[in-house]
Amino acid sequence: MTKTYVLDTNILIQSPLALLSFEDNKVVLPIAVLEELDKLKNEEGERGANARQTIRYLEQLRQTGNLFEGVTLETGGFLKIETNFVQIELPHGFGPDVNDNRILKICKGLAEKGESVVLVTKDILVRLKSQKIGINAEDFMTEQSPQLQEQYAGRLEVYAPDSAMNDFKKKGILPEQVYPYTADASKIPDSLSDAIKREIHPVCNQFFIIHSETNEKKTLLGRFNGKLIVPLKSLKEEPFGVQPRNVGQKFLQEALSMDADTAPLVIVKGAAGTAKTFYSLAVGLEKIFEAEKKSYRKILITRPNIQFDDDIGFLPGTEQEKIAPYLRPIIDNLEILVDRNENERYQNEKELRGKIDELFNRGIITAEAMNFIRGRSITYTYLIIDEAQNLTPKQVKGIVTRVGKGTKVILLGDPEQIDHPLLDERTNGLSYASEKMKGSPLCYQITMLTEECERSALALDAAQRM
Predict the structure, then answer these.
(1) What is the pTM of this model?
(2) pLDDT score of 170
């Protein structure tokens, strides 16, 4: 049965080509959506750009026919701009001049005509109101990732026979003699032949914790290179004097240490305190200062901020002065890295700040607003995008597809800590990039576990309890 999808404005200002995501069904744009697009078209930033792109696409469609009567989309669907149903009654308290309620009137009117109506909106409150009038409503599903606990973690625990583990240590390869790990000893297969029946399906660049099938505390670490599980290359390294403190950090160090040609994209998800930003900075500084061959021109840092990115042009001061308040978490990590003596680090705050300022003044580390990153071709740069869970899928695509030669992009963030009003753990750019780039030979991913929090004893305890 053909469905009628009524689109809210917020769908189009996040994904301008969402009109093409509904296959051969009917798509309806209420006239209120056009009015909102008109108000947004002159805005700076992402919303204005997406509104303009949507309007340009509607103009292309207008040239093919009458949008108020309906035109056929290239997907086989049908698009119509709807102006009717003004007289439809809504429950008491639904203000008649509110655009959300004007959209709900159209949904109700189409439903009363016998159409199978689905309202597509990112606004949770509108979805609640639609329930009151009996209209099905849903989020925009095309760009949704799986539930957080089902998202790709970039790591897998397995068992292997002792003979295979010995070969792995000697020859550096581990073929197919591994099977899924379980903490329940009663579920361990009686023989390897039984185990192989429970085969795993590794993903390219997926990290492995390999347990001995006779002693699960005996482990080796590896990575699936697309054909075989191979040992990690960076286990003995200490980037900028930093030693990995847990398995997750060992995997993280491996991904970050790979050169830009081998691993131009690294995606790191995890809770606060798991050293995502700290380790990224440590490896970046190592590659610039202490590597035999300087790998990158500079470290470029940016973090999306909803209000800041849109309003940067209206703030007083230079770009660096505008950005400074938003880089405090970066500075906190640099304070630890540039002065490794914990006993003396904070005895001379002025000297400590001078060391950090020197990194910025010499151009070794630079910071830019997200608006100034998009649209550029960035070469030979170690690019850290912190708090990437606040990016939209379109934003993250725009950044990753602009990466030039010799640049390494590190996306860092926690999908459970989102500030963007229209994003959640399934629709944010970090989770979107993770799922889309899963299996790419050019992308390394790791999800840090809560128990790998190293910030402090309190931070770990709170992360596990709260």
Answers:
(1) 0.81
(2) 87
